[in-house]
Amino acid sequence: MKKVLMVALLMAGVQAQADTEMRVYTNADGCSVIQETRTNGTTYDIEIAGQRAFVGILHDKSTGDIAAFCDDVQITNTSKGLKMECAKNQNGGLTTRGAAELGLLKDGTLTSISVIGQVKKLMGWQTDTEISCANLEEDIGP
């Protein structure tokens, strides 16, 4: 399901390049986020200090994806933006879970994003990915 959702989002964007809007956000800590708004949804490619995460959300906010950890996440609106999470996900031979929080202004401007992904091991849950980017500003370019 996860791969189907992401492939659908990406293919929709490839087929409708004119409908794709891309924004780049950065902060003083070296975090960069590429936000691509496409026909069916919005994707966020987050990178900081060698760690990377990828999050996708359908426009109707009915579901989304935290790549490698959750497909079919539950999305809730918060006072600061959106919260995405899945409690337990069968991911091939692994059990994973994850969460993401997006700080969004009413016009869709991203102000912060955090992603955590965990894998269940013999001794319990182990954090595989943990990224937090605050104070994001849109990089307008030269």
Give a structural overview.
This protein is mainly beta. Helices cover 10% and strands 58% of the residues. It is built from one helix and twelve strands. The chain has one helix spanning 2-15; strands at 21-26, 32-37, 41-48, 51-58, 64-66, 70-71, 74-77, 81-91, 94-104, 110-121, 124-133, 137-138. The chain has a seven-stranded antiparallel beta sheet, with helices on one face. β8 (81-91) and β9 form a beta hairpin. The longest helix has 14 residues, at 2-15. The protein is globular, with a radius of gyration of 15 Å. The protein starts with a helix and ends with a strand. The model is unreliable at 1-16 (pLDDT under 50).
Topology:
Elements: H1 2-15, E1 21-26, E2 32-37, E3 41-48, E4 51-58, E5 64-66, E6 70-71, E7 74-77, E8 81-91, E9 94-104, E10 110-121, E11 124-133, E12 137-138
Antiparallel strand pairs: 1-2, 1-12, 2-3, 3-4, 4-5, 5-6, 7-8, 8-9, 9-10, 10-11
Largest sheet: 7 strands, antiparallel
Strand count:
12
**3D shape:** globular
Query: Which structural class matches the secondary elements?
Result: mainly beta
Distance between the termini: 40 Å
Strand order of the largest sheet: 6-5-4-3-2-1-12
State the order of secondary-structure elements, H for helix, E for strand.
HEEEEEEEEEEEE
> Spans with pLDDT under 50 lasting ≥5 residues?
1-16
Share in helix? under 10%
Residue-averaged pLDDT, rounded?
86
Task: Give the amount of beta strand, in percent.
Answer: over 45%
Radius of gyration: 15 Å
How many helices? The count is 1
